Amino acid sequence: MATSYVSMAAPRSALYGFIVTLLLLLVCVAAQSTWAPWLRMHGQVPELALAAVLSIGLTTGGPSGLLAGFLGAFLWASVTGLPVGNLFISYMTLGFLAGTMRGRMFSDRVLLAAIVVMAAVIVASVIGLLIAPPPSPQSWVSAVLFRAVFSGLLTIPIYSLMRFLSRYYPEPDDL
After folding, report:
1. Structural domains present in the chain
2. Looking at the predicted structure, is the pLDDT value of residue 9 above 60?
């Protein structure tokens, strides 16, 4: 009988986690860009890409959150006509800030992830408002609030999946 030199509890390489994370970002961007009209909440599509970036940051740390923010902004900018600077500034900053919360303040709780995503949708929208203002600010406020709540609710399964995948990432001390 052959013996294994690798412990069964040992996680696979970090490459597996990075590949699955990239696939998660791709699926979230694809779902966000092709969201069915009958699934919209008051005509708003949830910010799934931003929810994935923040979930990655909360579960894997600041550098991974920054990289996820870059990839998420790049993927989302490739399918939309939004200003690229707005996306890169907001996604990368929010991904890194979420990553700095790893291991602090109940960062392993799903409720905190939902609240962080709701706040991040509002912050990203305000950054977008400063860079490219909409023609009607009144409708912008209600649209952002509905999008924030909808995104926060859909963060729960995304965050749960990232909590499961975070075991494939090296600990911050091992980097």
Report:
1. 14-168 (1.10.1760)
2. no
